[in-house]
Every structure is written in C-alpha cells, then in structure tokens.
Amino acid sequence: MTKSDAKEPGGCACGAVRYVMAGAPITVHACHCTDCQRITGSAFATNAWIEKDRVELLSGELSSHTLPAGRATSTTHFCPQCGTSIWTEYSSPKFWFVRTTTLDNQQAFSPDIHIWTQSKQPWLQLPDGNPVFEQYYRREDVWPPDSLARFHAAIE
Amino acid sequence: MVTTKLQAAEARELGGCACGAVRYVMNATPILSYACHCTDCQHLTGSAFILSAWIEKTEVELLSGDLTACKLSTGEHGSTVHFCPRCGTSIWTEYSPGFWFVRLTTLDNQTAYPPDMHIFTRSKQPWLNLSDAVPVFENYYDRETDWPAEKLARYRAVAEAVAG
C-alpha cells in the first residue's frame, strides 16, 4: 500500500468534473469482472478504495446509475458531458472506489490486488508479487493491519 | 463478394452498454484491434489502456438506445466519444471520418478480439507487463509499413471515399 498523505487532484476527460482525493487509498483493486470490462472499455478497472470523507468534488456534477453486482449493487458516478466514470459505490455507503487513472497523476497508485480474474482477458499477463483472486477474497487474509484499521474506523 | 458476405455473417458480434439500454451489432471483424496506453485513453477508461476495434462505420449498426456525443481535443484531429447517457458506458469514438473505434469489451463476447498491437506505451502504467506476442509501439506507427496489405486495402477504401 502506498504511503502518501498528499492531496491528489483529478477529473473527467472534458474537464467539467474536478475532484481531490486526500491521502492514499485503503487499497487499490484491478477488477477484471465482466461489468468492469464493459464499463471501462478495457481489460479491468483500477479502483482506489477510499473513505468518502477523504474525497471532495470540486466542480461539475455527476450522473449515477445502479447495477446489480452479485448479491449487492454498484452505483457508478460519471460525468454527464463526456461519460468519464469517476467513482463507484459498492456494498458500503462509506467508501468510494475512485478510478485511479482519472487522477492527474495517473501513476500515483498501482493495483495492490487483482480480483475476478476468472474473467480476465486471456492475453493479459498479470505482474508477479500481487495477490490474484479468481473471484473475491477475505479482507482479514490479505490486507495489512493499517488498512483493516481504516476500514473498521470508517464503518463503525 | 459472396465470400465477403459470408465472412461478415460469421463475424457478427452483438454488444451494448452496462445498463442494457444501448445495443448494437458489429457486422465484420475489425480492420485492427489495439490497446492504446496514451494518457487520454487511461483517463477515459479508468484503466491502464483502452481496447478498441477500428472498423468501417458501415459495418456497425445501433439497434436500440440513444448515445450522447462529446467532442474532445484528444487524438491528432480531435475525437468524438459516444456514450450511453443512462449508465455512462462509452461505446465508440470517432477519430477519423468514416470509421468507428468500438470499445471491444462492450461486445457480449468480450474476448472476441485480442489486441493486434499496443500503442503509446511510453505512458504505459509501470506495473503492467506486456507480452512480446504482438507489436508494441512507444508512440504511433507507420500504417504503410506496419499494416498487412488487406488491412490497408480496407482502410484506403473508406479513407479515399471520405476524402472524395
């Protein structure tokens, strides 16, 4: 997990939406599920899991759409002018999953964990050294203590 | 002509947006499929690259739903991205007249067309490993030398018609 308290600004492709993320995410997923592939137009989404109170919308408005995601739902928020998806809410209302490449520093945070690789693009090679899960995982088995502490602090 | 039509029928691929409002059909194999790692594509996708199919507009048909268009300054001559206004899924982009650049993972068969090449890898995400199975270009490439003859023929047929 990247250690950083820096404020990272970001936004959509047309410039209408601007936001700032304060500090490093709890963790970063590369999600290879079929929905993420469809929504991104890529092989996976790179999502920064972060407390909502660390993220601030500075300008623009977001449209949202809710999709079924397994037994829960996902609500993706996107710029209505250019369609760029900025963040998604999954099972908990306490967190955003921010698309890391909408940050101005697109290389600020690389994926910690690859999930749903059962639907991975066959040609794609995953890097060695990061946990890879065919589906999902148990947080307690994978996350370092500081990430778990942040997660529990946010939901309590 | 008969052969071409048969090939097209075999290549028929349905696709659509995440919420299901937009559905389309692609009636031929792409001229080229590619992964673009430029910073603009990373921005638009929320991922490390875009997977695009370069195809004649005449081979693509919108079956249902409406698309919102947004002009962007990305690409050599600008671009227009078309997306579902309900769920935000981008379906295709116009970079040059006569062609769509269809997002390959909006096809129902999301693994139908792996990338033929990787472009603009100078801004590739550092953590990403690319295999050497297909050509990798740090920037762009020279269509005349880097495309096989049949791809060039399909490209020229449309590009020359558009140029009039």
Characterization of the model:
The complex is a heterodimer of chains A (156) and B (164). Chain A is α+β, with helices and mostly antiparallel strands and 156 residues long. Chain A has a single domain, classed as glutathione-dependent formaldehyde- activating enzyme (gfa) (Alpha-Beta Complex), CATH 3.90.1590. Helices cover 14% and strands 35% of the residues of chain A. Chain A has a 7-stranded mixed β-sheet. In chain A, strands 1-2-5 form a 3-stranded antiparallel β-sheet, with no helix packed on it. Chain A is globular. By secondary structure, chain B is of the alpha+beta class. Chain B has a single domain, classed as Alpha-Beta Complex (glutathione-dependent formaldehyde- activating enzyme (gfa)). Helix content of chain B is 21%, strand content 29%. Chain B is built from 4 helices and 10 strands, in the order H-E-E-E-H-E-E-E-E-E-E-E-H-H. In chain B, strands 6-7-8-9-4-3-10 form a 7-stranded mixed β-sheet. Chain B is globular and about 40 Å long. The chains are: A alpha+beta (156), B alpha+beta (164). Chains A and B meet through helix 1, strand 4 and strand 6 of A and helix 2, strand 4 and strand 6 of B.
